Known about the structure:
Elements: H1 3-13, E1 16-18, H2 32-44, E2 49-50, H3 64-78, E3 83-88, H4 92-105, E4 109-112, H5 122-135, E5 140-145, H6 152-161, E6 167-170, H7 175-185, E7 191-194, H8 197-206, E8 211-214, H9 221-232, H10 236-258, H11 261-271, H12 288-302
Parallel strand pairs: 1-8, 2-3, 3-4, 4-5, 5-6, 6-7, 7-8
Amino acid sequence: MSSVAFETQRSALADVVAIPVTPFAEDGSVDRDTHRALLRRLLDGGITTLTPNGNTGEFYALTPEERRLVTELTVEEAGERAVVLVGVGHDVPTAVASARHARELGAQMVMVHQPVHPYVSQAGWVDYHRAVAEAVPELGVVPYIRNAQLTGARLAELADSCPNVIGVKYAVPDVARFAAFARDAGLERFVWVAGLAEPYAPSYFSAGATGFTSGLVNVAPAVSLNMIEALRSGDYPAAMKVWEQIRRFEELRAANGSADNVTVVKEALASLGLCRREVRPPSKPLAQEARAEVAAIAAGWSI
């Protein structure tokens, strides 16, 4: 893979990295038509980086067949309009198979979910990601880091053997730790994506991030784009105005250990008539009394 192609992928990470929801039909299956419509809405709204099978897409609640379907729908709808970063994970053979499937479809990158195994050693973390990266050397590889124990030196070690590891979705809620991790790994070597979305984007950008992930973007693409435009120009007061606008919505998503992280996004979409509110266990639909507040926030954005 030429450095020119990886440059395209690096540019796509230094942006709003959208994590689309996975809408479900009344019978509980993936609603293909609605999924396509939501993806087109993101693309029409100016989003150019899509992550199927992210956590906002309920990655861990989907079957292997559904994960493949979601990838296929996203690559088809994206066409030439967006770069696709496919979420992969679970055991190593499953993650490798998903990465190869993404490659076959024409996706440009894979995001490797933080291993959920209860026993993760730092050397084992490197081995896990190396197995995926070596299986798809043509694709850009983006580790999704939620482990506060992991050191930047381990990421550098991984990239030494796998030059296609080009970016990082960093989702440890500690900006000082992020700043140190990025510099230990190589600030210029990787594209740093603030993996905790808009609430953390201003502080993470101040420490070296150039992109951020977003679930809120499903509801209001313009809001997310307003924030990244402000951050790119170094206008932190303008970015914080957007932060104030999205604060309550994101607080609802983050409450109780992020119990309603996806639920709130789907509730907002449901209030706008864009998809059903259903989520799968272990998530749960929002209680009736909270729905009006989410609807009011979403209505305010859509004006």
